[in-house]
Specification:
The complex is a heterodimer of chains A (82) and B (278). Chain A has a single domain (19-81), classed as 2-Layer Sandwich (Alpha-Beta Plaits), CATH 3.30.70.20. Helices cover 12% and strands 22% of the residues of chain A. Chain A contains two helices and five strands; from the N terminus they run E-E-H-E-E-H-E. Chain A has helices at residues 38-42, 67-71; strands at 9-10, 24-28, 48-50, 55-57, 77-81. With 278 residues, chain B is α/β, with parallel strands linked by helices. Chain B has a single domain (13-275), classed as Rossmann fold, CATH 3.40.50.970. Chain B has helices at 13-19, 35-40, 60-74, 86-91, 93-102, 147-152, 167-179, 193-196, 203-212, 243-246, 257-275, and strands spanning 27-32, 45-46, 52-55, 79-85, 107-112, 158-163, 184-189, 219-221, 225-227. In chain B, strands 3-1-4-5-7-6-8-9 form an eight-stranded mixed beta sheet, with helices on both faces. Chain B starts with 12 loop residues before the first helix and ends with a helix. In chain B, 55% of the residues are buried. The mean pLDDT of chain B is 97. Strand 1 of chain A pairs parallel with strand 2 of chain B, so a sheet runs across the interface. The site of magnesium ion (MG) has 7 residues of chain B, from helix 4.
Chain lengths: 82, 278
């Protein structure tokens, strides 16, 4: 039996490009970031990744909630108006 | 386990908790109506990398138990997770209790945002005393019910409380539950920015303040009840932060000094009561 019409497909952007919801953009300072990984585990969207000098954010889906700034002990993240 | 670009609000505690499902091997989610349903996505799209079965409230545990048994008969390795809100735990309580009493081989997770959020913040049995919701506009007049303690009295195989403010503790508990068999229950405290009326960046801070003020107790039971390392020091009252710090949320702005003292007294009572089981 072909079940494909009734099965949902796992996909990013199930609710669209949620980066467009953002009023504030989190900016990471590569000088201050110690790559402790705290923001990576707490970001509700799962859009922070380990980069070379600091963590990197996928702005296509970051909703701009500001949780990352609050959990960063190094104060490496600044929220700037879009 | 959850893909970006989903429908959760900014700073959503349920998204944070859903990300932790990564530590469970082959999860199959059974989700009754609530914010989690919306986050999981609208057919034909899904935000979840695991199979999801959407179910009516009271059937949640019956479906989960049936799936778990069927997978066993088919020789399919799966960890069935009944994933629900506090409202669903109210509405589906008979099925939840029966499943725990039968010791069905399922994991139940309750993401507790202390109200029926998806329908517009109506009070649930988990709603804090005096909290304002749309059905308790002057503050809830009844006590919150302690769901995890009720599950403990079913002698479930594993019962734990957790919080999105302590993600590493939460992941540890989910992993442990995923590696065990039997009826496993995890009750996750999930402060909700729009429902509790605080700014979206404060989700983790509010969750931590609940634990640090003693209002949410982190513990686990696997035959023996233990306080969790992340929060055990708050058993001592002198280590707690002032409760008023935690109560800085829109739903509590109307509280008087006397109300706060009364809540503090209730919290002391909750600790005393819980520690009798340890
Ligand atoms: C049988 C049935 N009755 C009522 C509803 C309406 N409804 C949708 S979500 C919900 C409550 C959800 O509350 P909770 O379980 O706490 O989840 P939350 O949205 O807070 O995460 C209700 C009553 C429904 N979908 N189905
Ligand atoms: S929490 Fe701060 S220091 Fe740690 S990885 Fe994130 S930005 Fe860097
Ligand atoms: S603002 Fe929110 S969504 Fe964006 S990266 Fe920070 S925690 Fe993630
Ligand atoms: S109402 Fe609260 S729990 Fe529901 S999606 Fe929004 S933030 Fe998450
Ligand atoms: Mg709820």
């Amino acid at each position: 039996m072909d079940l494909s019409p009734i099965l949902s497909e796992a996909t990013v952007a199930s609710a669209g490009e949620t980066g467009s919801w953002r009023n504030y953009r989190p900016l990471v300072s590569s000088e201050l970031c110690s790559k402790c990984g705290n923001c990576i585990v707490y970001c509700p969207e799962g859009v922070i990744f380990e980069g070379v000098d600091s963590v990197e954010i996928d702005y296509r889906f970051c909703k701009g909630c500001g949780v990352c700034r609050e959990v960063c002990g190094q104060k490496a993240i600044e929220m700037v108006p879009e | 386990m959850i893909l970006p670009g989903n429908a959760s609000c900014q700073g959503c505690p349920i998204s944070m908790a859903m990300r932790c499902l990564d530590v469970i091997k082959n999860p199959v989610l059974v989700i009754p109506a609530g914010c989690s349903t919306v986050i999981a996505g609208l057919h034909p799209k899904s935000a979840m990398k695991a199979p999801v079965v959407h179910v009516p409230f009271p059937s949640t545990l019956a479906v989960a138990c049936g799936l778990s048994e069927a997978y066993k008969k088919l020789g399919v390795e799966a960890n069935v997770v009944a994933w629900m809100g506090d409202g669903a735990a109210d509405i589906g309580f008979a099925g939840l209790s029966a499943s725990a009493a039968r010791r069905d081989d399922v994991i139940t997770v309750v993401v507790d945002n202390e109200a029926y959020m998806n329908t517009g913040t109506q009070a649930s049995l988990s709603t804090f005393w005096k909290a304002k919701t749309t059905t308790s506009p002057a503050g809830k007049t009844e006590e919150r019910r302690n769901l995890s303690l009720i599950m403990l009295t079913h002698k479930a195989d594993y019962v734990a409380t957790a919080s999105v403010g302590y993600i590493r503790d939460l992941r540890k508990k989910l992993r442990k539950a995923g590696e065990m068999a039997g009826f496993r229950f995890i009750h996750i405290h999930a402060p909700c920015p729009p429902g509790w009326r605080f700014p979206s960046e404060k989700t983790v801070e509010v969750a931590r303040k609940a634990v640090m003020s003693g209002a949410w107790i982190l513990w686990e039971y696997d035959g023996k009840l233990r306080l969790s390392k992340a929060g055990e020091k708050y058993a001592l009252k002198e280590n707690r932060i002032p409760l008023a710090e935690y109560l800085k949320q829109g739903r509590f702005l109307h509280l008087s000094e006397r109300d706060i003292r009364e809540i503090e007294r209730k919290i002391d009572e909750d600790w005393e009561f819980l520690l009798r089981f340890s």
